[in-house]
Write a structure and sequence with these properties.
The chain folds into 2 domains: 46 residues; 32 residues. Helix content is 69%, strand content 0%. The chain contains 4 helices and no strands. Helix 1 packs antiparallel against helix 2 and helix 1 crosses helix 3.
């Protein structure tokens, strides 16, 4: 996020010169343009990269929590079935 914030601040400070900012920070024109757009809309928090972040069970609604539990139980059943097949041999 620090790099994104610095790039956005630089771009804004330099009259939104996206091309120059992209070259200086080694990013694409579309990246800096997107970051500026997000920053203008939602502020600094919009610059946080949330890829790979999964909500905990406490952060999701009941339906999603039940889906997750169902997947966990299916995986456990699959592992037990595989173990039972292995022990038969």
């Amino acid at each position: 996020m620090k790099e994104r914030k610095e790039a956005v601040e630089y771009c804004i400070k330099h009259e939104r010169n996206y091309k120059e900012t992209a070259v200086i920070f080694g990013i694409s024109y579309s990246q800096i343009y997107s970051w500026i757009k997000k920053y203008d809309t939602n502020g600094e928090e919009a610059l946080v990269d949330k890829r790979g972040h999964h909500k905990t069970d406490d952060e999701v609604d009941e339906l999603e929590r039940l889906r997750r539990e169902n997947l966990r139980l299916k995986q456990q059943l699959k592992e037990k079935d595989m173990l039972a097949e292995l022990l038969k041999k």
